[in-house]
Amino acid sequence: MHLTASEVILRIEGLKKVFRSGESDLVLFENLSFQVAKGEMLAIVGESGAGKSTLLHILGALDSASAGDVYCAHLRVSSLTENDAAEFRNQQLGFVWQFHYLLPEFTALENVAMPLLLRGASRQTTQVEASRWLREVGLEQRAHHRSGELSGGEQQRVALARALITRPKLLLADEPTGDLDGRTADSVFELISRLHRDYGLTSLIATHNFAFARRCHRVLRLQQGRIEEIAPETLPV
Prior knowledge:
Rossmann fold; four-stranded antiparallel sheet; 7 helices
């Protein structure tokens, strides 16, 4: 896939990750190079332990690579200081994980508002925006419920609203439907797809679910430390 410089939002060059295991080194992956276009929905598939989560952590400046570089637009992510990496995550990225990581002592509204509060936005502004995003994910009526009072699917919807309230350029989702039953998982994936389209997101989704991966624009398979592009329609049903 050939992209012009203006089309590329994410560029990965020669990425390698090594873990120390006792007296030896465990190479999780090496020489990963690929590009992601603006507006693309990209699935990353691979067996458990292949390195999908670690790759997303590196792309999101939550972990560092052993070698190689990550560029987001014109920013060299791999060289950011800790403070700059935190600002990059807050300004440019939205994260959704397999587990929702909602703060149990806060309501759905307060959880969604948290990223804007961390930016220093006023309480009034954050409440208005958080309410709007809860409406986007179909949970306006559950705004004042704490996470323990919400179903698994509702909790993941709140987590998605929290990820997108900052209007990020990139959405990184790590097995976002992995903890949900089939019907709930399907509705959450449909919601991610709709918000991806409506807000012009660029989304990278690590998933075991081939049915979801087939509905993405492109699929990259991480296997035995290497990455290869495969046609979505070739994935098993």
